């Protein structure tokens, strides 16, 4: 399995950005909000990294994606993100730096709000064993 395949964005807030021109300002705002490891996936390289079926990364990756599909909605979410990349949109991921649960909860909400303020949509938190849609108050 290739190292560049996105296995699972653990402890990250992930969303879709339509406006390519907003990336620099979004990165700065996320850094100010305390996000770590901000990554923006785009185009063919982003699609290759997501590889929702595992086709581009060998039999082990394909088997892993099959298991993910059987056990939860992660595979479907990766398919949806891949579809967004195919439409020319960007997938933004921002890691959390906080350690304890209360701080993590505050940080993921803060990062989600910053993303929303900069036009990111379909925002979700990918935890160790969960995916949580972030419904953020205005």
UniProtKB/TrEMBL annotation:
Region described as Disordered: spans on this chain: 40-59
Compositionally biased spans, kind Basic and acidic residues: 50-59
Protein name: Heat induced stress protein YflT
Source organism per UniProt: Egicoccus halophilus
